[in-house]
Specification:
about 300 residues; about 25% strand; binds adenosine-5'-triphosphate
Amino acid sequence: MNTTRTDAAVRIRGLRKVYGEVTAVEDLDLDIAHGETFALLGPNGAGKSTTVEILEGYRLRTSGEVSVLGVDPARGGLDWKQRIGIVLQSTGETGLLTVTEMLRHFASLYPNPRDVDEVIAAVGLEAKAKTRIAKLSGGQQRRVDVALGIVGRPELLFLDEPTTGFDPEARRQFWGLIRSLKAEGTTILLTTHYLDEAAQLADRAGIIAGGRLVDIGAIDEIGGADARRPIVRWRDAAGTTHEVRTDEPGLHVASVVAEVGREPDGLEVIRPTLEDIYLGLVRDASTGSANEIDDTEEALA
Ligand SMILES: Nc1ncnc2c1ncn2[C@@H]1O[C@H](COP(=O)(O)OP(=O)(O)OP(=O)(O)O)[C@@H](O)[C@H]1O
């Protein structure tokens, strides 16, 4: 095999992609370690699919260095393609074959495929195994896309908005599947607009806006400590809402109770979710302003 194992499964340096007047990706640096699950997050048009498609070898870059499993994707041959799995944002499957037939066909293209029946069970399509793909619902067809992405036992799996159209139960089942792939050592690059999905699955996330990486870090650290500080919120006797960011929400609640002398109205302790932090970072990126943290008690009208 004409590949070299590098430290990172994916290595990107100074990536830039220009479509005519539009700069879709600018000066992007990123490393994804072997075995890591990495989520690339960002609003519509941020440059996620462009980046992922360059890594998959589907799109040529304007400039920069890219290495995927030790190979430049612009020059990746069949042996390299057999080591990666791809679930595109949308696929143009004709749907004439049954689920089993389609998977058998795909499995035959790989040197060490997974067992087709096991893959069908893993994506929850056992009852539809003999159904033509055209007759499946949108969410079921999406599950076929996921099955096709993993049947070749890829070392690196690209998942571009994999659970769009899934019902909540199917999403939970999919998360279990991704965790088992990760446990087997699969490296996963996920793009999703479901921030809970990223929080559930990813070790690290990168947030891209306007083609630039605005933050990157461990899922429980991204955005920094300040953005993650819990908020204590309550209403006073006059009906005014108070909101305080504090590292000691329990102590703050105790002091409010001591002051009010009873259960405070509308008391909440809010721990910012990944979605809250993401929205703050994307807003800051679009306005160009720094994230302002209010340490002081603030009365909200
Ligand atoms: N083939 C193309 N020709 C011209 N412009 C394109 C092309 N593909 C993407 N773009 C532009 O590049 C930018 C990034 O698009 P991209 O599809 O990478 O974003 P995305 O983050 O994947 O968005 P979404 O969340 O909507 O899928 C957008 O401004 C888009 O309009």
